[in-house]
Amino acid sequence: MMKFLQLDVQWESQVINLWNRELSSDFPMRDTLFKQNSIQDPSVLSSGSYLAVNEQDQVIGFIISKYVQEKTEALANREIGWIQALLVDSHFRKNGIGSALLERAEKALEKQGCKTIFLGRDLAHYFPGIPLQFEGTKEWFEKRGYQASGIESDLIRIFAPDEKFVFQKPKDIEVALIENKDELVSFLHRCFPGRWEYEAKQYFENGGTGREFVVFRKNNKIIGFCRINDPESPIIGPNVYWAPLFNERVGGVGPLGIDKEERKNGYGLEIVKAGISFLRERQINTIIIDWTGLLDFYKKIDFKVWKQYQQYSKQI
To answer: How far apart are CA 299 and CA 312, in angstroms?
Structure first.
């Protein structure tokens, strides 16, 4: 007799093992990443996150759903829910397990008042959609009412160890790693309220010192920012989720944003270059930019498509 149980930390290692049996060649899961994104993230909806367990007490499938539960101004939309991950052991597919898991998650999200469910794109997400190579998965969700929209990409650039990368800061701009948390948060609140502001606050609450945020200042005022990640970062950022695929240190750039009053001055590309130059100083040769549609923009500095994802959502 198979049973459905709510996601619980005691099954964590079995869930990670299942993930790696099925997905590790493209998306290797680390214990620390799973703990960060699927156990400790405050948006995990326990009433909509389930395991399928067989008679031998083996996890053969799971679903994790999310919904904003914190009362925070930065995340005000209470009508959106997410399916972070749904996976069934390939030996047990076509038995209705995935459908039963999805139905449970959708009901729980609907009960919270959600009107739209996205696949991926959640806070502390793994994917911004369904990885493009998973054709069968895309068809499966389409049959269950999910509609495709745009395509998002992860980009990569691998530098030779001795390769020079020149960043020449724009005139009148001061470039620095932020030390003043309040200054950064108030800039984000003013220019980019929402997810980026929320994530910056989370970063500082988790012991961030500012070494992950490059800022541009003009006349002593922040006009732009870029986040960078490396193996020493206190939070595993999405651009370095799949770093175990490489035998070397991996860094990531993004997100980045420029005050709308200062756009059209070329600062966007320059702040990315500043981020890259800080990572290169840290002896990082492999640099990834995650979840973007700006392929032509990043092509200017030789980033190429690495992974792609199809966005999906469903109205309920």
So the answer is: 26
pLDDT of residue 136: 96
Structure tokens at 187: 């800039």
* pLDDT-flagged residues of the chain (< 50): none
Distance (Å, whole) CA 199 – CA 202: 5
CATH number attached to the domain at 156-308: 3.40.630.30
Distance CA 95, CA 265 (A): 56
Residue whose structure tokens are 């001055």: 265
pLDDT tens-digit map of 62-75: 999 999 987 666 56
* Matching fold, domains 3-126 and 156-308: yes
Written as one string, the DSSP assignment of 170-226 is PTT-EEEE---HHHHHHHHHHHSTTHHHHHHHHHHHTT--STTEEEEEETTEEEEEE
- CATH number of the 3-126 domain: 3.40.630.30
Q: State the Cα angle at 64 between 106 and 48, rounded to 5°.
A: 40
Task: Give the type of residue at 307.
Answer: K
So where are the chain's domains? 3-126, 156-308
Find the helix packing angle between 181-191 and 195-205, rounded to 10°: 170
Q: Which two tokens stand for residue 127?
A: 């994917």
Distances in Å between the alpha carbon of 46 and those of 9, 49, 243? 11, 5, 28
pLDDT recorded at residue 73: 61
